[in-house]
Amino acid sequence: MSNSTLLQKIEQCREEMLSLSRSHSLTSEAVITSSVKLDQLMNEYENKK
């Protein structure tokens, strides 16, 4: 996956997590799952640098 594609996925995931956090508690399973996914994408991006 190219860096630009990865950055787009990171931004989409970040927006999804923020949206979920507006309608769920920060400790809800949905928000935590989204946060873990975002962490994984960001780690993948950092490892590619």
From TrEMBL:
<protein>
    <submittedName>
        <fullName>Spo0E family sporulation regulatory protein-aspartic acid phosphatase</fullName>
    </submittedName>
</protein>
<dbReference type="Pfam" id="PF09388">
    <property type="entry name" value="SpoOE-like"/>
</dbReference>
<dbReference type="InterPro" id="IPR036638">
    <property type="entry name" value="HLH_DNA-bd_sf"/>
</dbReference>
<dbReference type="InterPro" id="IPR018540">
    <property type="entry name" value="Spo0E-like"/>
</dbReference>
<dbReference type="InterPro" id="IPR037208">
    <property type="entry name" value="Spo0E-like_sf"/>
</dbReference>
